[in-house]
Fold this sequence. Notes:
Elements: H1 3-12, H2 19-44, H3 50-83
Amino acid sequence: MPFSFFRRINALRVPARFTPFVFAFYMSSIMGMLMCLVIVGAGTGVHDGYGMRVWQAYKLAMPVAFVCVLIVRPLVVRLVLLSVRQVA
C-alpha cells in the first residue's frame, strides 16, 4: 500500500486525550448492539421485522450505554485495582 494511505489513516486518529471517549464509544456500540440482539430476540422472537426492532432498540440503547460507560468506567478501574493482586 502506498505510504500516503497510512498518512491519511493516521490523520483520522484522535488525540490520546480523547481515549476515555473512544473507549466508551466502542464499548457502548458493541455491548449495546449485543444486548439489543439478545433482548429483542428473547422478548419478541427472531422472525419478520427482527432487524428493524433491534435497530429501534439500539437507537435508544447506544447513547444511554455511552453515557453509562463514561460514568461507570472510573469506578470499574478502581474496583479492578482493588481486586487484582499487584505483581512485586
